Amino acid sequence: MNFYQHTRKTVQFNKLNTPVMIFVMTVLFSLNGCQSIPEHQFRNTHIYCELPQSKQLQRAISQSQKTLILHHCQSDFYRHFDILLTIASGSPADSNLDNLARFSQWGVQQGIISQKQNEEFLRRYFTPHMVSLDYHSDFNTYSHCSMSQQLPEMQTLLKQELNQKRLGLAEALGDVPGYRQAVKEYQSLKFLLKNVSTACQKT
């Protein structure tokens, strides 16, 4: 075989395998490209909302604010508040209320929550009085017999609020007497609702 015939045969072979070669080169290039991207740069291309890491309440609040200032993270406000409550429970004190209330008010200023939500939020966690039914117009009249159909929902709301008061009053503030008062009011309301429901069923 002379040089010309060898060259012609080689060209024909390359033409037949051009799609395969392109595919192989593309895969190799992609693999090489993936290996050349540092891991931290890869992570930075993904948006995530960081949660507070500090065990010190004021620092944790600052960390939460840096995250929640980002619009796509603002739906995590209540999740951040729960974490801050847990951090506060590590060192229960009245001063924790001031810090948590300022954080909540900051949420109002940033447009994350409304002033009404803020007030309800703080009352649920940090006052001994059961207030969850006050914010539901359908539940304002306990004597109305139509409420008997909503009794399970009302009991659930009260139970959730009592748990919030445990986290806020007893654990974050160390206000055990205040929490005991909340327990008594919870039991009284529960008893009242049950009696009203029973009376309505007899009519």
Question: With helices defined by DSSP (H or I, 4 residues minimum), what is the helix count?
Answer: 8
SSE ordering: HHHHHHHH
**Helix proportion:** 55-70%
* CA-atom Rg in angstroms: 31 Å
Structural class determined from secondary elements: mainly alpha
The total count of strands amounts to 0
Main sheet, how many strands, which sense, barrel? none
Strand content: under 5%
How many discrete structural domains? Answer: 3
Average pLDDT rating: 79
How far apart, in Å, are the first and last alpha carbons?
A: 111 Å
Stretches where pLDDT is under 50 for at least 5 consecutive residues are 2-46
Question: What is the approximate shape?
Answer: elongated
How does this model look, in words?
- By secondary structure, this protein is an all-alpha fold.
- The chain has 3 domains: 10-44; 50-127, no CATH class; 141-203.
- It contains 8 helices and no strands.
- The protein has helices at 3-36, 39-44, 57-68, 77-88, 95-109, 115-126, 151-173, 176-202.
- The termini are far apart.
- 20% of the residues are buried.
- The model is unreliable at 2-46 (pLDDT under 50).
Give the SSE layout.
Layout: H1 3-36, H2 39-44, H3 57-68, H4 77-88, H5 95-109, H6 115-126, H7 151-173, H8 176-202
Helix pairs in contact: 3-4, 3-5, 4-5, 4-7, 5-6, 7-8
What keyword list fits this structure?
203 residues; mainly alpha; 3 domains; 69% helix; 0% strand
Brief summary of the model shown:
By secondary structure, the protein is mainly alpha-helical. It is 69% helix and 0% strand.
